[in-house]
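Progress against Task 2.4 (sequence-to-structure conversion) is shown through the following example record, which the project officer requested during the mid-term review.
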Amino acid sequence: MTLTRKGAATRARIVEGAAGQIREEGVFALRLEDVMARTATSKSQLFHYFPGGKDELLLAVAHHEADRILDDQQPELGALTSWEAWWRWRDKVVARYRAQGAHCPLQTALSRRGPAASDAARAVAGRLMDRWQEQIAAGIRHLQDAGEVTAGLDAEREAAALLAGVQGGVAILLATGSTIHLEAALDSGLARLREARPAD
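Structure tokens generated for the chain above:
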């Protein structure tokens, strides 16, 4: 669908409104009527931009939130060029998810398993993880180039392990409201990197 500037703004307002509704009240409170009221849009407008209804809207929320997750970690995630930068990134990740709380629009959107949305939702998640992992791996490679980490370390695999730890910590946070496991995963991952210093 080719949108005018006004149309694109209306569609974005609906997506952001749905994400905000989920963030504040959870998925079970997400009703299209509430999204329409929240975003001052009519039923015809909503179904014009999202003819597939709630599943299509949730997929758009997933795209929106995936981009937001990476944007919220900038500029630190894109500039992991020193140990101090890594620790600033660590603190920003923890603060981001602590502020988000127990309701995650992305997790909500990706948990939808309608017959048409399932593959598309997995593609959104895969693209997010690929982009996130590559930026972490780029930071590890920078440390290797600077002689802070041994060149023999597999940057992609270490980035994958660190990201898996973050995601596990986030999952527990969503279930319990506690950031303890997220912090432990980040601290352990960064400690492992620091231990991989080249031999003198």
